[in-house]
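Message: A physicist's question: would you kindly supply an amino acid chain plus fold tokens?
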Amino acid sequence: MIDTKKQNPLQHIVKKPKRLETRLIIWVTGLCVLQAVLFGGLVYQITAQSLHNHIGDKALAVATSIASSDEVVKALKNPSDLVAINQEIENLRQLTDADFIVIGDKNAHRIAHPDRNKLGKRMVGGDSQAALRGERYISVAQGSLGESIRGKVPVYDEQQNIIGLVSVGFLVQSIEPLIRARIVEIMIWGLLLVALSIVAAIFIGQRVRNAIFGLQPDEIARLFSEQDAILNTMRSGVIALDPDGRVRKLTQRACEILDKPAACINQSLTLKDLLPEHAEFLLRNQRRKMVGFELFAADKRLVLSRFSLQVQGQADGILLTLRPADELEYLSQQLTKVQAFAELLRVQTHDYSNKLNLIGALIQMGKNEQAIELIGQESQGSQAQIHHLLERIQDPVLAGLLVGKYHKARELNVVLELNPDSLLGAIERTDMLERVVSILGNLIDNAIDAAIRASRERTPYVRVTVDETSQTLLFDVEDSGFGLGSDHEVIFTPQYSSKSGAEHGIGLYLVKTNLDSCGGSLEIGESDLKGARLSVYIPK
């Protein structure tokens, strides 16, 4: 038979992690016990010292009172009747609860003592000489009755000569019961404090656990390690910010993308330190989500997304993810454009299918002239426009962009015209071509939208002009909309939009960002189409 215990030698070694409540009970209770012990010891010392001082003061007061008694002075000057003085001193001892009252002559021989067998013998303890020199004091010494706290006072005659001393004492062992009674009381309060600490630890543990979503400390540590590892293996950079823009979390990949040293991870930073040109708008409208937002920073084109962070339903900052718009991103954008263009082709196919059915019906009805006229009307405009476009625009990417925008405008019942005077050669620089496509595409989209909004007052119309000189690329986009108003600064902020919806409001900001990245400029004017005219100049 196989012994299963030998197969799992670690199952008795690995201990189950303690729950948060258990840890708090252990820690808080241990702390309270330690405090109770330290406090009890301190109280014991203070109580003992206080009692000793009190007993010493009492002994000294009683001794002073006895030393000033005429009977004591007479007894010391004429020690013939020692029985009477001893009886009187014994009565006084019982009244004051003293353990002993001893009277000695100037040679420190006892003339009064609770034990009559010790009368006439020398006082012991070695602490009587100072009293015979005229000092009043409290001492602790080992006497014939045991260790005691003593008050010693000299006795003077009428001529102020020292003729003896009085010693009133309380045995140390008689004080211990008083101290122990105090200690028992302290221990009772200490136990109550420990019990209260356990209840408080349970309550605090539950509140803390609710605040951390029911996770145990070991689970939090493991979750933190896992998330840290995940964030540092992502190809996207991650920046977590509080509502004021202070950086809470910065991954190594984000430092690489923004060309920041890795030491920034452990530094106190703000968003302005990382993205100074875009920090202001990224911190506005923090609840608004941004996905796939393009901007130019650290001398490169980046794709950024922004998400709102919420804790228990309350806004607690934002999370930024960013990555370079590399070839994969460029291909993704091209695929998106192809998909959009395919959708337009599908719509066009459906439209042409209806018209072909109409043409076929006219031919079957013998209406050949009407069929030929319909074919001419349908093909003349679009074919002429596309043929002219391909002749005048030599760059295939820009030509494809304009063809796509032409079909989009036509589907939306907007007339898009390429100025007959347009002429543009191929753009050799790939980075500039990407920015030109983004600039021209956003301007045309905005122009189409503006023309549609004014379609109730006039025919929606968009005119595009592309041209170049030896050193500059020129683009003109005009529309039949309502114009852009007089405040030309605000329209280039991400928050500006004349349309509704969270996806709007960043087109012209992208135009400005791309223009800044390639050193271009933009002019705004009025078009003869009664709308806006935007002129772009980009140095080659």
